[in-house]
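User: Could you go from structure to sequence for me? I need the amino acid at each position, not a summary. Structure tokens:
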């Protein structure tokens, strides 16, 4: 996989918060941001897959039936 460069202009307070979150996890700020983007991308793809499955099998209207797993999805 080829790597690319992405340059961002970030507010100083936001950068400090990113660095603090990364430090808590023993990561560099760059790794923290990349992992956050990957996680958000996965969550979005997972949510889409669940919605497509619901459309394919039909929405379950049973009271109390869980049609959308919520673990890790915001």
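Assistant: Here is the amino acid at each position, in order:
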């Amino acid at each position: 996989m080829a790597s690319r460069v992405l340059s961002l202009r970030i507010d100083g307070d936001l950068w400090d918060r990113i660095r603090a979150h990364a430090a808590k996890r023993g990561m560099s700020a760059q790794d923290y941001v990349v992992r956050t983007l990957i996680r958000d991308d996965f969550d979005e793809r997972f949510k889409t897959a669940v919605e497509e499955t619901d459309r394919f099998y039909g929405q379950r209207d049973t009271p109390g039936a869980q049609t959308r797993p919520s673990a890790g999805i915001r």
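One structural detail worth keeping in mind: The longest helix spans residues 29-57.
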